[in-house]
Amino acid sequence: MSQGETGDQSGQVRFDFLYQEQFSTVYKFGYRLLGDAEKAKDLAQEVFLRLYRCLNGSEPVHDVRGWIYRTAANLSLDWIRHETRFMKISTLGFGRNGLVHEIEKDFDKAEEISAVRKALKQLRPRDRILLNLYQEELSYKEIAQATGLRRSSVGQFVSRAIKRLARQLEKGEKA
Amino acid sequence: MRCLPDKILQEYLDGELPEAKSRRTEKHLAGCKKCSQRLAGSRAQNDFIRKKLSLLYPAEIPVAPAFSPDIGRFEMRRKYEFKRIFTVTIRVPTAAVAMTVLFFLGFSLGIALQNRGEGIRVRGGETKSTPLYVSTSDSVQILSLNWDFMGYRPIEHPQSIIFKEEQK
Known about the structure:
Chain A has helices spanning 3-34, 37-56, 64-86, 99-105, 107-121, 125-135, 140-147, 151-174. By secondary structure, chain A is mostly helical. Chain B is elongated. Chain B contains 5 helices and 2 strands. In chain B, 10% of the residues are buried. Chains A and B meet through α1, α2, α3, α4 and α5 of A and α1, α3 and α4 of B.
């Protein structure tokens, strides 16, 4: 067996391990942001497809976790913008595979979730992604890497995004 | 001492301040009632938002489906979406423009064919249609298939043209 084949195999093993380990992370991230199980799955597939290409290509990936979050954030940002442009997300902001199922289970909780989603939809896509990453309990450094912000600005942006979301939630409750 | 900005309070809450800065912040908080109240407010708001956002966690996480590098579902969906958008926003106007162009082409072709043979005008007389044949080709100009619709040119020797009606 040649060295190249051995290298390919170890790369494949590494990828399989990463895929099994990180799939749920990306899925959760996508689900919270896009509000739909199918979309979350698609997002995860796309992120890992790109990771696969990177690991098998010439582009080196040093910090895989950071890379995954960054790719997921960029893809979701594209997706949100794309969908906002073509008005394809339902006005309530949840998909057929997500909340509808939950509504059947628990009406009150579903109403609360719907309110949070509505409030989130009022925020800018960047704020939504930032809050999602913050909720993941990533460090400021990791958030900065994923969003392209400077590390020193993350606190400021997080603080503002939290205030904006709180304001939107308050507005939603009053309405 | 000036009160702490929101950014510092947020970083302090998240444990992201460097140690020296964190100590300075604590010192300030101990002496500034306004800032310590703001900190408490920020903490409560953070907790509130975290609690709300935690509602969005999926009820169950599916098992990672078998991965195949050949299948990019996201990309496929995008392509499909593009196709859909293309249908609605581009295909319809394109079809409309194409139909208009075809209509005008057909219309002008019809007129051109109709005008075929009508391009002979007898000098001083009316235009006659459908020439059967022309006897002296050098003395007449037949503007059959007059594509440019520029009108008829006069004929030098009208006698040399024999029309269908006259033949009867």
